[in-house]
Design brief:
By secondary structure, the protein is α/β, with parallel strands linked by helices. The chain contains 9 helices and 6 strands; from the N terminus they run E-H-E-H-E-H-H-E-H-H-E-H-E-H-H.
């Protein structure tokens, strides 16, 4: 991890079941568009509002680590996975779900109160944020940067929701992020890639190729560990 205060730190959480090139493009384009010094990917151990990942947390973490091994400016935080797995076995524990607010509190402890932290979200996830645990506290812990399709204005509701009020009060631009450790909501456009982890899993289950949809290191790991496939064929 970087030293506290060493530039803007992007935080990108997800199940990464598996990590695919759409995830990497979002992280890369966020780094460029927002002037981030580093992007840290945080695989969820036990996601709260999503179905149980198909792949074990230890495998999902390993795929992210391998994909980022050769990429400068990117790092991995294994904390969520380590909290949710039994050492040595990699099996899931009955630990509490991974809540984003808890993740951000842990990142604050790691990086200190002054370093600007930027939580990276897709527009769909941001639109559902009112369902998240202690969602209003997120803005006191980090900025929120929302990836949108080029040419699409970010809209979150009918204009009268609690999230709309937060968005109106906190909306900023990339240049605002370095001026405070938290509190802004900044939309940024990214290349639209129609790739999803569920579609990757379906192709693998059907014995179809996912080359160029996932990083080569991830494909190698999937093949060597026979993940997601219903048979041993390719």
């Amino acid at each position: 991890m970087s030293e506290p205060g060493a530039g803007l730190l992007g935080l990108f959480g997800g199940t990464f079941d598996p990590l695919h090139v759409g995830h990497l493009r979002l992280a890369l384009e966020a780094r460029e568009a927002l002037g981030l010094a580093e992007v840290c990917l945080i695989p969820a151990g036990k996601p709260a509002l999503r179905e149980t990942p198909q792949c074990a947390a230890a495998d999902r973490l390993a795929m992210v680590e391998r994909a980022l091994a050769e990429l400068p400016g990117f790092s991995v935080d294994a904390g969520e996975v380590l909290q949710a797995t039994v050492p040595a076995t990699g099996a899931a524990t009955s630990a509490a779900p991974s809540y984003t607010v808890d993740t951000l509190e842990r990142q604050r402890r790691l990086h200190g109160p002054q370093r600007p932290l930027v939580l990276l979200l897709g527009a769909d996830a941001f639109a559902r944020i009112e369902a998240w645990h202690r969602w209003r506290e997120l803005f006191g812990l980090a900025h929120v940067a929302v990836a949108t399709r080029p040419g699409h204005e970010l809209r979150v509701g009918a204009g009268a929701t609690a999230l709309d009020a937060e968005f109106t009060a906190r909306r900023g631009v990339a240049g605002d992020l370095a001026g405070a450790p938290a509190g802004r909501i900044v939309p940024f456009a990214i290349t639209a890639l129609e790739i999803s982890a569920s579609a990757v899993r379906r192709r693998l289950a059907g014995g179809l190729s996912v080359r160029y949809l996932v990083p080569e290191a991830v494909l190698d790991y999937i093949d060597s560990h026979q993940l997601y496939r219903t048979s041993h064929g390719h």
